[in-house]
Amino acid sequence: MTEDWKVIWSPASAEERAYWKSILNDAAAPKGSTDSVEHILCRAIFSRDIELIQLCLSHGAKLDCWVHESIGLNCTLELMRIFIPAGLDVNYNVDRLGGYLTLAIRGEDSKLVKYLLEQGADPNRNPMGDRHPALSLAVLDNQIEMAEMLIQHGARVNGMGALGMAAKHHRFNMMELLFRHGADINDNAKELRRSCVVLRSKERTALHEAASEGNADVVTYLLERGAKPDVHDLNGQTPLMLAQTNGHREVVEILATKQAYVP
């Protein structure tokens, strides 16, 4: 359907909603309205009008891209409990927004995250709008409960950059969680090159990320746990090289004592 997004992605007035309800309650299709059922559904979503939403669905409203994006822009547990049983693809790539699961994580809505996972949301799927996989987003936002939940539902602790994200942002609790679930301390997030459309992986280890940021305490912690200091990233850089380039003297001194490789 040809639509003006400024209109379709906006709440409807009480008068408009009452008019649409009268039409939908009175006939098999909204014959008295020039608006499609999908248009009405989108406006109902933005208006948080559950009665009108259910009326539209009962009249066969299609879950097209406009509807998907309307749901993504108003992503709540209440809406998902209506739309998923109605056939919503829980792993749909919402244009420019990403996936419903990562939207829920960014919104810090643990109940919605739990529901989506129970309904089949794939924590390793990386829709085009997302810069990071679900687990990395939970790590970034320091959402320990969500991270645990994602791992329990199959989120990969290796290959997708979660440990590097934790090291980069001083998330010691997250690093401990990831190690408890089998994270490889020398993992270089290699799978990101294939799975993440937006983010270009440099294949860096957690030690690379910590050294690049100048996180001396994290560098020490990782070395004590057995991190290899002479691993090269995709650009041929070691953690020591990154620390030197970024002027992190304390980190340079720590890595130098470990005889990190310098060509």
Automatic annotation (TrEMBL):
Keyword Transmembrane helix applies: no
Q: Which ranges does the UniProt record give for the ANK repeats?
A: 130-162, 158-190, 202-234, 235-263
Q: Pfam family of this protein, just one? A: Ank_2
This protein's UniProt keywords: ANK repeat, Repeat
What PROSITE patterns has UniProt attached to this entry?
ANK_REP_REGION, ANK_REPEAT
The answer on whether this UniProt entry bears the keyword Cell division reads: no
Could you identify this protein by its name?
Ankyrin
What species is this protein from? Petromyces alliaceus (Aspergillus alliaceus)
Its lineage opens with: Eukaryota, Fungi, Dikarya, Ascomycota, Pezizomycotina
